[in-house]
Design brief:
131 residues; Rossmann fold; 3-stranded parallel β-sheet
Length: 131
């Protein structure tokens, strides 16, 4: 399911499936995108930040068009203990690889991959980004 911002409307709460993963998309060319994510973060239960929240930063192939400093993204990553994925969605191969990666992350967060928990996978992602 896709939402443009949080909180989600409450009138359909009883029909909403369990939420296993939240991916906040940030378009590096849009300060409005970052502001929307920052405002939405207040509506996420603190338990989700234990491996079930990721930031997906798009538009990274155009460094000269950036409106958002990478430092602002790093601050989000640190403040919410949530990994950041960078991609360029305009390239089909990267778009497909990113979709496959997100699907695998969702499977792990939903508990469908034996031997992996959302928290252990998130820590693994963060540690590999630090290398």
């Amino acid at each position: 399911h896709i939402a443009t911002s949080l909180p989600l409307p409450s009138e359909r709460d009883h029909l909403r499936p369990r939420i296993d993963l939240i991916v906040f998309m940030i378009d590096i060319k849009s300060k409005c995108s970052l502001k929307n994510v920052e405002a939405s973060l207040a509506y996420v239960d603190a338990r989700f930040f234990l491996g079930k929240v990721y930031f997906l930063v798009t538009g990274v192939g155009r460094v000269n068009c950036c409106s958002i400093e990478i430092n602002a993204i790093s601050k989000l990553e640190e403040a919410y203990c949530s990994p950041v994925l960078f991609c360029e969605l305009e390239l089909e191969g990267v778009r497909v690889a990113t979709a496959q990666r997100l699907l695998r992350m969702l499977q792990i967060c939903a508990g469908l991959v034996p031997g992996f928990s959302a928290l252990s996978f998130s820590l693994l992602m963060r540690n590999s980004a630090d290398d």
